[in-house]
User: Which sequence fits this backbone?
């Protein structure tokens, strides 16, 4: 994961183009699939954390946010947080409505930032509560020690240089701050059928790199049993009414992921870590 500056810049640019193409192609599919039974949009693009009685991705995505936000410590009124890879704004709006905090949302894609901003405005949240900033997780446009907490939901698998991401995350946090990172992990990427734009790492490597970046008190919550099988089953049912190229693609992707999880090669983990005081 260590690269010279020229190669790192090239990788970052390639990653940006790959991510842009990926979300322009599949974003609307996930937005539609993530609506509630009443047609309400979750504003989220993640796989969800599926509870026993969940019947929609909307419910599972809410539970994913609940689990991640539940790992944050008690936060002082007006605390400033950073969402890394903020997507289309569902998580930040949910957190700002639940807690008296302000947020900065960082994302490579201007389209996502605009969607997030529109969602915040629709919920009565101005830029004093949520601010949207374009930029890379691996070279963040912030000063040292700006944030009281950070979180990253199902975005780090896009980052080719995990150490750059984790060091930047560490740098911009205040002493004693907590970071929460939730994502797919994989111990053998050669078994992943669709690897373009995906930079999966093992859970063990993520823990090691968090520690090398300077974080302490690293904890791991393994939630794969509440992700892959239920999501695949839901997508298959969804596909009975929404057939097409995207449905076929995601059916194959998620079946591959489910099989890898059953073999113990893929997981979905939540990492919680602290910057020392």
Assistant:
């Amino acid at each position: 994961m260590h690269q010279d500056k020229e190669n790192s810049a090239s990788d970052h640019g390639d990653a940006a183009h790959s991510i842009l193409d990926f979300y322009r192609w599949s974003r609307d599919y996930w937005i539609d699939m993530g609506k509630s039974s009443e047609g309400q949009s979750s504003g989220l693009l993640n796989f969800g954390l599926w509870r026993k009685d969940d019947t929609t991705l909307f419910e599972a995505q809410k539970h994913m946010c609940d689990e991640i936000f539940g790992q944050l410590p008690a936060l002082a009124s007006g605390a400033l947080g950073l969402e890394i890879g903020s997507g289309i704004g569902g998580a930040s709006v949910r957190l700002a409505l639940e807690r008296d905090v302000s947020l900065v949302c960082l994302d490579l894609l201007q389209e996502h930032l605009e969607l997030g901003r529109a969602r915040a405005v629709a919920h009565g949240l101005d830029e004093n509560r949520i601010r949207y900033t374009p930029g890379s997780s691996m070279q963040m446009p912030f000063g040292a020690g700006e944030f009281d907490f950070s979180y990253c939901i199902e975005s780090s698998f896009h980052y080719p240089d995990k150490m750059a991401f984790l060091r930047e995350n560490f740098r911009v946090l205040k002493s004693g701050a907590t970071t929460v990172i939730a994502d797919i992990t994989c111990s053998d990427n050669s078994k992943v059928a669709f690897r373009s734009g995906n930079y999966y790492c093992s859970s063990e490597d993520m823990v090691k790199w968090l520690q090398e970046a300077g974080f302490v008190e690293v904890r791991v919550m393994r939630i794969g049993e509440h992700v892959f099988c239920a999501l695949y089953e839901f997508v298959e049912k969804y596909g009975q009414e929404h057939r097409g190229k995207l449905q076929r693609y995601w059916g194959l992707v998620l079946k591959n992921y489910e099989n890898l999880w059953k073999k113990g090669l893929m997981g979905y983990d939540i990492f919680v870590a602290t910057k020392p005081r």
